[in-house]
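Lecture notes, structural biology module. Today: joint structure prediction for complexes of two components.
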Amino acid sequence: MFNLDGKSALITGASGGIGGEIAKSLHAQGATVALSGTRVEPLEALAAELGERAHVLPCNLSDFEAVDALPKQAVAAMGAVDVLVNNAGITRDNLFMRMSDEEWQSVIDVNLTSTFKLCKGVLRGMMKARWGRIINISSVVGATGNPGQGNYAASKAGMVGMSKSLAYEVASRGITVNCIAPGFITTPMTEKLTDDQKSGILGQIPAGRMGDAGEIAAAALYLASAEAGYTTGTTLHVNGGMAMI
Amino acid sequence: MSDIAVRVKKIVVEHLGVEEDKVVENASFIDDLGADSLDTVELVMAFEEEFGIEIPDDAAETIQTFGDATKFITEAS
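The predicted structure, tokenised, for the full assembly:
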């Protein structure tokens, strides 16, 4: 089940906690992976760990020319992009009343506009192949909102609406488009939270613990697989029960 | 029929699964040949590859019929 032999996957934000685990899971099932991110060192380290079938494609997602070039670089490296995982994301938290246009725009650009551009960039190959998997990593806060994250929540909710629209358009071509909405996951990003913040968060999670990046990767592996061919336009919430939606 | 028209017709027939004699000069991809809007995008992609040309989005929108396609490609190539 979930075999990905012969498939090629482009993963953004592969230098981060969740992206790295997704890359490892897809690779373990036989996929060739292109690891993208802004920091080259962790990408190189991950590629070395994976060994064969791993390519490093650094890309700054706030640079739209670089974003447009990324799908082409991935095709040059791997021959095709069968699976696209838009995982990269940034936060620029601030109270709504204090949020600057720049804080708003930078989060929308990196999280939402780059996702749009990368989806568009891989569609041609997927349409010709009559097979494709697009997995957009949204967030629980895209559905619930979160104080201080008006920009981030908007970008993550935007991803969901965009994915559903695209899913309609390309379903007849064997291409599925889905989102995963992680809850609180143990990553370097959430390590920065104080103990008080953490215990506050845990009180809202029926599972009583933070999630593991591997639990997001498992969801991504399912959505990338041939077995998930009838699953499209959906959002898989992986959040320990903190929001049952 | 020009060589270009023959090749265009072949792509249309294969892609839309229609009879060759239905693909006449004024045949509209959508109204006469049963294409949906995504089919027309794919047809343009196929033309670009077959003839090694680039068809910009605004030009692609003007290609509605078999005749439009052969005319545009003849001028572009």
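Point to remember: Chain B has one domain: 1-76.
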